[in-house]
Request: fold
Amino acid sequence: MPRGALAIDIGATKIALALVDSEYKVLRKIEVRVEGSDSQKLWKKVAESAQNLISSKPFTLTGVGIGSAGPIDVTKGTISPVNIPVWREFQFVQSIQEIVELDNVLLYGDAMTVALAEHRLGAGRGLKNLLGMVVSTGIGGGLIIENQVFFGDSGNSSFIGHQSIDFQGEICACGRSGCVEYFASGPRMVHRAVQDGWNEGSDFVQLAESARAGETISLRVIDEGTRALAIGIVNTLANLDIHHVVLGGGVSEAGEIYWRPLRKHLENESNLVGFLKGRVVLRQSQLNRDAGLIGAALAVMD
Reply:
């Protein structure tokens, strides 16, 4: 019988679960909305979805790969996503192990699974070093160094979304001041636009539509958000002396209204760091919204 994995991608607004086969194809997927203030009710919906999937699996289940918004603790098997306040030090690995009755359950940061998938199968193929980025409800980073995922001590390397770029700035949900995520995530750009008088919608898709139509507030907010992201990216590239970035997530799907200012700011910021000047390469994810699931499966089946 062929083998495969259960892959789980935990984001700020939804949790995706999928069966992934040995060729890293997503066979069946279920999405759970993150809502409410009850930890166990949220877990129950995830557990029921996992049981639903594995009851119909067309292969031998090798294990479970998990990519979660951070912070995480790979030693304890716990997750504490900044944007899911009901889960703090939540024992996700042990809880999943009890459902699947397997020990082979691996926990990664969500952007690490994206970096792994893009490095092996997508826009990062052939690169020895790269920074993988997810820009959506939150912002995450993951690193491939010398062809290997770099975890750090607790599994939270390249925690870019909560890198402070303005120590006198507004307080982020994480408690720090002026984080990259405060300026550059989809919901935060929308929030800032609404504060400044934009009234043409309530989500980033609508904000991008307004910007394409030439609306000045949305154009300015996207410009500020992409500059904040570019600063966080260049800070990380400069620390590590690496030069390739693969970026995915819902916000990145907005097209040139987003990518044009991002490329401009990335070039401007990197040109101020002598050894990065002219060497930074920005690529868009090729695996799109399934990148995290594919990377989680890769982690557990590789």
User: Anything to note?
Assistant: The CA atoms of residues 187 and 225 lie 11 Å apart. DSSP finds nine helices and 13 strands in the chain. The chain has a mean pLDDT of 94.
